[in-house]
Amino acid sequence: MQLIELKNVHKRYSNGVMALCDVSLGISKGEFVFVIGASGSGKSTLIKLLYRQEKPTKGDVYVGGVNVARLRNRKVYKLRRKLGIVFQDYKLLPKMNVYENVAFALDVYGLKSSEIRKRTLKAIEQVGLKDKLRSYPDQLSGGEQQRVSIARAIVNNPKVLICDEPTGNLDPDTSMEIMKVIESINEDMGTTVIMATHDKDIVNKLKKRVIVVDKGMIARDSMKGKYKNEGV
Ligand code: ADP
Q: For residue 12, how many other CB atoms are within 10 A of its CB?
C-alpha cells in the first residue's frame, strides 16, 4: 500500500455541491505532488480529506495505512501528528515570537527541555530564520512568516507535508524562495509533499508530478508535469 491512497472518493457538501466525484489516486513515500485546477475544482476539498478537516461521503482515504475516513474524532490528533500543514495565510500566533510559535507546535510529550530547544532550533534553521528567533509575526515579511509556518509544520518530523496555496500571498521571487525551502525538506528529510497551487511558474519550474482536478475529477496525472491551460 502507498503512503496515501484515495479509493473511489466522493464528497458532497450538505448544500448539495459535489466537490469530488469518484477520485482514486496513490502517492508514494517521498513524492512531491502538485494539485492544480481552476478555482472551485475541488483542490482544497481533496487536501482537507487528508487531514480529516472533511470526511468523504463515499470511499476511503488512507494515510500511512490508516483509513482516515473511518477514524474516530478522538483519534484525529494521532493522524495530525503524522502531518504538517501549511496554509496560504500562515496562521501564526501574533503574541508569540518565532521560537515560541514553532516550539508551541512541538509534541513535547516525554521530551526534555534541552531536546525541545534542539528540535525547535533545528526546524527554524531549516527554513533559514535563525537570526529572527525573537521577532514577532508583525515584524516579519510575508515570506518570513511563511517560513515560520513551515518550521512549525515540520517540527514534529511529519511523514507528509500538506500545503494549501502556500505562495498565494507572496510575490514571485519570494514564492520561489519558499518553494526552495519546501523542496529541500522533500529532498533532505524524505518528507512527502502535497501542494495545491495556482502558481504556473512554480509548477513549470519544479517539474514534479502534477495532478489536475477539474469539476471534482482527476483530469490529468503526469510525472514531471507542466501547467497547461486546462481551464485553470
Ligand atoms: P478549490 O480548492 O479548487 O477552489 P474547493 O475544494 O474549495 O475548490 O471547492 C470545490 C467545490 O465545493 C466548490 O463548488 C465550492 O463552492 C464547494 N465547497 C467547498 N467547501 C464547501 C463547504 N464547506 N460547503 C459547501 N460547499 C463547499
A: 15
Is there an atom of ligand 1 within 6 Å of 43 CB? yes
Task: Assess if residue 16 is contained within a domain.
Answer: yes
pLDDT band at 229 (very low <50, low <70, confident <90, very high): low
- Report pLDDT for 231: 47
Rounded to whole angstroms, the Cα distance separating 99 from 97 reads 6
Query: In what helix (H) or strand (E) does residue 75 lie, and over which residues does it extend?
Result: none
218 membership: H or E segment, kind and range: strand 217-222
Q: What residues make up the domain containing 145?
A: 92-153
Q: 114: Cβ below 6 Å to ligand 1?
A: no
Residue nearest to atom 1 of ligand 1 (CA): 40
Going from the Cα of 95 to the center of ligand 1, the distance in angstroms, rounded, reads: 32
- The bridge status of strand 32-36 relative to strand 83-87 is unpaired
* The model's pTM: 0.94
102-111: pLDDT as tens digits? 999 998 888 8
Total domains present in the chain: 2
Report the distance separating Cα 2 and Cα 229, nearest Å: 30
